[in-house]
Amino acid sequence: MKKILTLFLALILTGCSAGGFSSSSAEISLPKQSSPEVSETKIETSDEKEVEFSAWTVYWDNEDSEKEIEDLKENLDNIIHFAAYFDAENELFLPDKTTELFARLKTNHSDLKCKHYISFVNDKINKDGSSSLKDTKLLAELFKDEKSMEEHAKEVVSIARRNGYDGVEIDYEAIRKNTALWNKFVKFIEILYAYTSQNGFELRVVLEPSAPLGEIKFPEGPEYVMMCYNLYDSGTTPGPKADKQFIKGLCQKMSAISGKKTFAFSTGGFDWQYEGDCAALTETAAAELALKHGKEPSRDEASGALYFSYYDDDDKLHEVWYADGKTIKTWAECVEQNGGGNISLWRLCGNDEESLKEIFE
Predict the structure, then answer these.
(1) In what order do the strands lie in the sheet with 278-281?
(2) pTM score, two decimals?
(3) What is the pLDDT of residues 287-307, one digit of tens each?
(4) Of the candidates 258, 254, 168, which has an alpha carbon nearest to the alpha carbon of residue 205?
(5) pLDDT in tens, 119-129
(6) Would you tell me the crossing angle of helices 179-198 and 146-162 to the nearest 10 degrees?
(7) Architecture in CATH for domain 49-266+324-358
Protein backbone atom coordinates (compact mmCIF):
# COMPACT_ATOMS: atom_id res chain seq x y z
CA MET A 1 0.00 0.00 0.00
CA LYS A 2 2.97 2.19 0.54
CA LYS A 3 6.48 2.04 -0.87
CA ILE A 4 7.79 1.60 2.68
CA LEU A 5 6.24 -1.88 2.56
CA THR A 6 8.99 -2.95 0.17
CA LEU A 7 11.59 -2.45 2.87
CA PHE A 8 9.74 -4.52 5.41
CA LEU A 9 8.37 -7.50 3.53
CA ALA A 10 11.76 -9.17 3.20
CA LEU A 11 12.75 -8.23 6.76
CA ILE A 12 9.69 -9.81 8.34
CA LEU A 13 9.81 -13.00 6.27
CA THR A 14 11.49 -14.98 9.05
CA GLY A 15 9.02 -13.62 11.59
CA CYS A 16 5.88 -14.57 9.62
CA SER A 17 4.11 -17.85 10.01
CA ALA A 18 1.21 -19.55 8.36
CA GLY A 19 0.67 -21.45 11.62
CA GLY A 20 -2.09 -20.42 13.98
CA PHE A 21 -4.95 -20.72 11.53
CA SER A 22 -6.35 -23.18 9.07
CA SER A 23 -7.75 -22.37 5.66
CA SER A 24 -10.26 -25.19 6.00
CA SER A 25 -13.78 -24.09 5.15
CA ALA A 26 -15.47 -26.71 7.34
CA GLU A 27 -17.02 -24.09 9.66
CA ILE A 28 -18.09 -21.71 6.91
CA SER A 29 -21.73 -21.42 5.97
CA LEU A 30 -22.09 -21.63 2.22
CA PRO A 31 -24.12 -18.84 0.59
CA LYS A 32 -27.36 -19.52 -1.20
CA GLN A 33 -27.23 -19.67 -4.98
CA SER A 34 -28.50 -16.11 -5.22
CA SER A 35 -26.74 -13.36 -3.29
CA PRO A 36 -28.68 -12.03 -0.28
CA GLU A 37 -30.85 -9.02 -0.97
CA VAL A 38 -29.31 -5.81 0.27
CA SER A 39 -31.27 -2.67 0.96
CA GLU A 40 -29.50 0.56 0.12
CA THR A 41 -28.03 2.38 3.10
CA LYS A 42 -28.04 6.12 2.60
CA ILE A 43 -25.22 8.15 4.13
CA GLU A 44 -26.59 10.63 6.61
CA THR A 45 -24.90 13.91 7.45
CA SER A 46 -23.15 14.33 10.79
CA ASP A 47 -26.12 16.42 11.97
CA GLU A 48 -28.25 13.26 11.83
CA LYS A 49 -25.75 10.50 12.55
CA GLU A 50 -22.28 10.42 14.04
CA VAL A 51 -19.57 9.65 11.48
CA GLU A 52 -17.76 6.35 12.05
CA PHE A 53 -14.00 6.58 12.56
CA SER A 54 -11.56 3.77 11.69
CA ALA A 55 -7.79 3.45 11.81
CA TRP A 56 -5.23 1.00 10.42
CA THR A 57 -2.41 -0.64 12.32
CA VAL A 58 0.54 -2.05 10.34
CA TYR A 59 2.66 -5.09 11.20
CA TRP A 60 6.03 -3.42 10.51
CA ASP A 61 5.44 -0.47 12.84
CA ASN A 62 3.00 -1.18 15.64
CA GLU A 63 5.04 -0.65 18.79
CA ASP A 64 3.09 2.51 19.67
CA SER A 65 -0.26 1.35 18.31
CA GLU A 66 -1.67 0.43 21.70
CA LYS A 67 -0.99 3.88 23.11
CA GLU A 68 -2.56 5.66 20.13
CA ILE A 69 -5.55 3.31 20.26
CA GLU A 70 -5.93 4.17 23.94
CA ASP A 71 -5.78 7.88 23.07
CA LEU A 72 -8.47 7.40 20.41
CA LYS A 73 -10.68 4.83 22.12
CA GLU A 74 -13.58 7.22 22.80
CA ASN A 75 -13.83 7.95 19.06
CA LEU A 76 -12.56 4.74 17.47
CA ASP A 77 -15.22 2.51 15.89
CA ASN A 78 -13.04 0.10 13.90
CA ILE A 79 -9.44 -1.09 13.94
CA ILE A 80 -8.12 -2.44 10.62
CA HIS A 81 -5.23 -4.88 11.10
CA PHE A 82 -2.90 -4.64 8.10
CA ALA A 83 -2.41 -7.24 6.70
CA ALA A 84 -2.68 -10.80 5.47
CA TYR A 85 -0.75 -11.44 2.25
CA PHE A 86 0.63 -14.29 0.12
CA ASP A 87 3.61 -16.62 0.11
CA ALA A 88 5.40 -17.98 -2.96
CA GLU A 89 2.70 -20.65 -3.44
CA ASN A 90 -0.08 -18.03 -3.42
CA GLU A 91 -1.17 -19.15 0.05
CA LEU A 92 -2.39 -16.52 2.48
CA PHE A 93 -0.67 -15.99 5.82
CA LEU A 94 -0.64 -13.53 8.70
CA PRO A 95 2.55 -11.90 10.02
CA ASP A 96 3.21 -12.79 13.66
CA LYS A 97 3.22 -9.12 14.62
CA THR A 98 -0.32 -8.74 13.30
CA THR A 99 -1.69 -11.59 15.39
CA GLU A 100 0.36 -10.56 18.44
CA LEU A 101 -1.01 -7.00 18.45
CA PHE A 102 -4.56 -8.28 18.02
CA ALA A 103 -4.09 -10.66 20.96
CA ARG A 104 -2.71 -7.88 23.17
CA LEU A 105 -5.61 -5.61 22.34
CA LYS A 106 -8.16 -8.30 23.14
CA THR A 107 -6.38 -9.15 26.40
CA ASN A 108 -5.21 -5.77 27.69
CA HIS A 109 -7.89 -3.47 26.26
CA SER A 110 -11.14 -5.27 26.91
CA ASP A 111 -12.89 -1.90 27.33
CA LEU A 112 -12.47 -1.17 23.62
CA LYS A 113 -15.87 -1.06 21.94
CA CYS A 114 -14.57 -1.12 18.37
CA LYS A 115 -14.73 -3.87 15.75
CA HIS A 116 -11.57 -5.54 14.46
CA TYR A 117 -11.05 -6.14 10.73
CA ILE A 118 -8.30 -8.14 9.05
CA SER A 119 -7.07 -6.58 5.81
CA PHE A 120 -6.06 -8.71 2.80
CA VAL A 121 -3.60 -7.27 0.27
CA ASN A 122 -2.22 -8.50 -3.06
CA ASP A 123 1.39 -8.44 -1.91
CA LYS A 124 3.52 -11.54 -2.20
CA ILE A 125 6.78 -12.98 -0.88
CA ASN A 126 8.68 -14.76 -3.67
CA LYS A 127 10.81 -17.89 -3.32
CA ASP A 128 14.03 -15.87 -3.43
CA GLY A 129 12.84 -13.69 -0.54
CA SER A 130 12.02 -10.70 -2.71
CA SER A 131 8.58 -9.13 -2.61
CA SER A 132 6.01 -8.38 -5.29
CA LEU A 133 3.78 -5.51 -4.23
CA LYS A 134 0.27 -4.99 -5.63
CA ASP A 135 0.68 -8.11 -7.73
CA THR A 136 -2.01 -8.20 -10.44
CA LYS A 137 -0.73 -11.51 -11.85
CA LEU A 138 -1.63 -12.97 -8.49
CA LEU A 139 -5.13 -11.49 -8.77
CA ALA A 140 -5.56 -12.91 -12.27
CA GLU A 141 -4.77 -16.36 -10.86
CA LEU A 142 -7.13 -15.97 -7.90
CA PHE A 143 -9.95 -14.75 -10.17
CA LYS A 144 -9.40 -17.05 -13.18
CA ASP A 145 -12.90 -18.53 -12.84
CA GLU A 146 -15.81 -18.59 -10.39
CA LYS A 147 -14.56 -21.77 -8.72
CA SER A 148 -11.22 -20.17 -7.85
CA MET A 149 -13.04 -17.02 -6.68
CA GLU A 150 -15.21 -19.09 -4.36
CA GLU A 151 -12.19 -20.97 -3.01
CA HIS A 152 -10.42 -17.70 -2.30
CA ALA A 153 -13.55 -16.22 -0.67
CA LYS A 154 -13.88 -19.27 1.59
CA GLU A 155 -10.21 -19.02 2.59
CA VAL A 156 -10.58 -15.32 3.45
CA VAL A 157 -13.64 -15.98 5.63
CA SER A 158 -11.95 -18.97 7.26
CA ILE A 159 -8.94 -16.89 8.29
CA ALA A 160 -11.16 -14.16 9.72
CA ARG A 161 -13.23 -16.69 11.67
CA ARG A 162 -10.35 -18.77 13.04
CA ASN A 163 -8.43 -15.71 14.19
CA GLY A 164 -11.39 -14.01 15.87
CA TYR A 165 -11.87 -10.92 13.70
CA ASP A 166 -15.22 -9.15 13.27
CA GLY A 167 -14.78 -8.16 9.66
CA VAL A 168 -12.80 -8.45 6.44
CA GLU A 169 -11.14 -5.75 4.35
CA ILE A 170 -10.06 -6.37 0.75
CA ASP A 171 -7.28 -4.03 -0.40
CA TYR A 172 -6.34 -5.33 -3.86
CA GLU A 173 -4.60 -2.55 -5.78
CA ALA A 174 -2.93 -1.58 -9.08
CA ILE A 175 -5.70 -2.93 -11.36
CA ARG A 176 -5.67 0.48 -13.04
CA LYS A 177 -7.10 0.31 -16.60
CA ASN A 178 -7.37 -3.46 -16.82
CA THR A 179 -11.13 -3.64 -17.51
CA ALA A 180 -11.20 -7.43 -17.72
CA LEU A 181 -9.58 -7.75 -14.32
CA TRP A 182 -11.93 -5.12 -12.86
CA ASN A 183 -14.92 -7.16 -14.04
CA LYS A 184 -13.50 -10.26 -12.38
CA PHE A 185 -12.74 -8.29 -9.23
CA VAL A 186 -16.32 -7.02 -8.83
CA LYS A 187 -17.58 -10.58 -9.40
CA PHE A 188 -15.27 -11.76 -6.63
CA ILE A 189 -16.58 -9.01 -4.34
CA GLU A 190 -20.13 -10.18 -5.04
CA ILE A 191 -19.16 -13.77 -4.15
CA LEU A 192 -17.18 -12.71 -1.07
CA TYR A 193 -20.01 -10.52 0.19
CA ALA A 194 -22.35 -13.50 0.03
CA TYR A 195 -19.91 -15.55 2.16
CA THR A 196 -19.19 -12.78 4.68
CA SER A 197 -22.88 -11.97 5.08
CA GLN A 198 -23.87 -15.60 5.61
CA ASN A 199 -21.12 -15.98 8.22
CA GLY A 200 -21.71 -12.77 10.16
CA PHE A 201 -18.74 -10.69 8.99
CA GLU A 202 -18.63 -7.08 7.85
CA LEU A 203 -16.89 -6.40 4.51
CA ARG A 204 -14.87 -3.34 3.49
CA VAL A 205 -13.40 -2.87 0.00
CA VAL A 206 -10.59 -0.34 -0.50
CA LEU A 207 -10.54 1.60 -3.78
CA GLU A 208 -7.76 3.66 -5.33
CA PRO A 209 -8.62 7.07 -6.83
CA SER A 210 -8.24 5.56 -10.32
CA ALA A 211 -11.03 2.99 -9.77
CA PRO A 212 -13.56 3.13 -12.67
CA LEU A 213 -16.60 3.86 -10.49
CA GLY A 214 -18.62 5.42 -13.28
CA GLU A 215 -17.85 2.65 -15.78
CA ILE A 216 -18.26 -0.58 -13.79
CA LYS A 217 -21.13 -1.28 -11.41
CA PHE A 218 -19.89 -2.35 -8.00
CA PRO A 219 -22.16 -4.68 -6.03
CA GLU A 220 -24.27 -3.22 -3.24
CA GLY A 221 -23.67 -4.37 0.31
CA PRO A 222 -19.98 -3.89 1.18
CA GLU A 223 -18.58 -0.69 2.65
CA TYR A 224 -16.40 1.02 0.04
CA VAL A 225 -13.31 2.92 1.19
CA MET A 226 -11.79 5.56 -1.10
CA MET A 227 -8.07 6.29 -0.67
CA CYS A 228 -7.88 10.09 -0.51
CA TYR A 229 -4.11 10.40 -0.60
CA ASN A 230 -0.93 10.33 -2.68
CA LEU A 231 -1.96 13.35 -4.71
CA TYR A 232 1.72 14.13 -4.14
CA ASP A 233 4.13 11.36 -3.13
CA SER A 234 7.64 10.04 -3.66
CA GLY A 235 7.16 10.04 -7.43
CA THR A 236 6.05 13.67 -7.76
CA THR A 237 7.16 17.17 -6.96
CA PRO A 238 6.64 18.34 -3.35
CA GLY A 239 3.09 18.90 -2.13
CA PRO A 240 0.35 17.65 0.22
CA LYS A 241 -0.97 14.10 0.20
CA ALA A 242 -4.41 15.58 -0.50
CA ASP A 243 -6.08 18.95 -0.91
CA LYS A 244 -9.69 20.13 -0.81
CA GLN A 245 -10.17 20.05 -4.58
CA PHE A 246 -8.82 16.51 -4.78
CA ILE A 247 -11.14 15.33 -1.99
CA LYS A 248 -14.13 17.10 -3.53
CA GLY A 249 -13.51 15.27 -6.81
CA LEU A 250 -13.31 11.91 -5.04
CA CYS A 251 -16.56 12.63 -3.17
CA GLN A 252 -18.23 13.27 -6.52
CA LYS A 253 -16.72 10.07 -7.91
CA MET A 254 -18.01 8.04 -4.95
CA SER A 255 -21.56 9.20 -5.71
CA ALA A 256 -21.65 6.28 -8.17
CA ILE A 257 -21.44 3.88 -5.20
CA SER A 258 -24.58 2.84 -3.33
CA GLY A 259 -24.48 2.18 0.40
CA LYS A 260 -21.87 2.80 3.06
CA LYS A 261 -18.99 5.02 1.96
CA THR A 262 -15.75 5.80 3.75
CA PHE A 263 -12.96 8.23 2.91
CA ALA A 264 -9.41 7.35 3.97
CA PHE A 265 -6.83 10.00 4.85
CA SER A 266 -3.12 9.53 5.38
CA THR A 267 -1.11 10.90 8.29
CA GLY A 268 2.51 11.97 8.00
CA GLY A 269 4.08 13.04 4.73
CA PHE A 270 7.27 13.18 2.70
CA ASP A 271 10.67 14.82 2.79
CA TRP A 272 11.79 15.70 -0.75
CA GLN A 273 15.47 16.37 -1.38
CA TYR A 274 15.91 18.44 -4.52
CA GLU A 275 17.76 16.37 -7.12
CA GLY A 276 17.77 13.50 -4.66
CA ASP A 277 15.68 10.97 -2.80
CA CYS A 278 12.25 11.33 -1.25
CA ALA A 279 11.59 9.77 2.15
CA ALA A 280 8.29 9.04 3.90
CA LEU A 281 8.04 10.32 7.44
CA THR A 282 5.53 10.40 10.28
CA GLU A 283 3.99 13.50 11.79
CA THR A 284 6.24 13.32 14.86
CA ALA A 285 9.36 12.78 12.70
CA ALA A 286 8.43 15.81 10.58
CA ALA A 287 7.88 17.98 13.66
CA GLU A 288 11.22 16.87 15.11
CA LEU A 289 12.95 17.67 11.81
CA ALA A 290 11.46 21.18 11.80
CA LEU A 291 12.58 21.72 15.39
CA LYS A 292 16.10 20.44 14.65
CA HIS A 293 16.52 22.95 11.82
CA GLY A 294 14.79 25.81 13.61
CA LYS A 295 11.86 25.95 11.19
CA GLU A 296 8.28 27.01 11.92
CA PRO A 297 6.01 25.05 9.52
CA SER A 298 3.45 27.04 7.51
CA ARG A 299 -0.08 25.82 6.83
CA ASP A 300 -1.23 25.59 3.22
CA GLU A 301 -4.69 27.09 2.73
CA ALA A 302 -5.67 24.83 -0.19
CA SER A 303 -4.97 21.60 1.71
CA GLY A 304 -4.61 22.36 5.41
CA ALA A 305 -1.24 20.57 5.33
CA LEU A 306 1.96 21.81 6.98
CA TYR A 307 5.16 22.48 5.04
CA PHE A 308 8.69 23.83 5.51
CA SER A 309 12.10 23.68 3.83
CA TYR A 310 15.59 23.24 5.23
CA TYR A 311 19.20 22.57 4.25
CA ASP A 312 20.80 19.31 5.40
CA ASP A 313 24.37 18.79 6.62
CA ASP A 314 25.56 18.54 3.02
CA ASP A 315 23.95 21.89 2.24
CA LYS A 316 21.26 20.25 0.11
CA LEU A 317 17.79 21.77 0.03
CA HIS A 318 14.80 19.74 1.26
CA GLU A 319 11.06 20.45 1.23
CA VAL A 320 8.73 18.70 3.70
CA TRP A 321 4.94 18.41 3.53
CA TYR A 322 2.91 16.55 6.15
CA ALA A 323 -0.48 16.22 7.81
CA ASP A 324 -1.36 16.74 11.46
CA GLY A 325 -4.68 16.40 13.30
CA LYS A 326 -5.87 19.80 12.10
CA THR A 327 -5.15 18.74 8.51
CA ILE A 328 -7.17 15.55 8.91
CA LYS A 329 -10.03 17.55 10.41
CA THR A 330 -9.94 19.92 7.42
CA TRP A 331 -10.17 16.97 5.02
CA ALA A 332 -13.00 15.38 7.02
CA GLU A 333 -14.93 18.65 6.91
CA CYS A 334 -14.46 18.71 3.14
CA VAL A 335 -16.08 15.26 2.91
CA GLU A 336 -19.00 16.44 5.04
CA GLN A 337 -19.48 19.46 2.79
CA ASN A 338 -19.53 17.25 -0.32
CA GLY A 339 -22.02 14.53 0.52
CA GLY A 340 -20.68 13.03 3.72
CA GLY A 341 -19.24 9.68 4.68
CA ASN A 342 -17.20 7.86 7.29
CA ILE A 343 -13.50 8.49 7.91
CA SER A 344 -10.53 6.11 8.05
CA LEU A 345 -6.99 7.02 9.11
CA TRP A 346 -3.91 5.52 7.46
CA ARG A 347 -2.24 4.89 9.88
CA LEU A 348 -1.48 4.58 13.61
CA CYS A 349 2.06 5.06 15.03
CA GLY A 350 4.07 8.24 14.71
CA ASN A 351 1.17 10.58 15.48
CA ASP A 352 1.22 13.23 18.18
CA GLU A 353 -1.28 12.64 21.00
CA GLU A 354 -2.50 16.24 21.18
CA SER A 355 -2.65 16.41 17.40
CA LEU A 356 -4.88 13.32 17.25
CA LYS A 357 -7.32 15.01 19.61
CA GLU A 358 -7.65 17.94 17.21
CA ILE A 359 -9.38 15.69 14.68
CA PHE A 360 -12.43 15.51 16.92
CA GLU A 361 -12.55 19.04 18.34
Answers:
(1) 278-281, 268-273, 317-323, 306-311, 298-299
(2) 0.88
(3) 999 999 999 999 999 999 999
(4) 168
(5) 999 999 999 99
(6) 40
(7) Alpha-Beta Barrel (3.20)
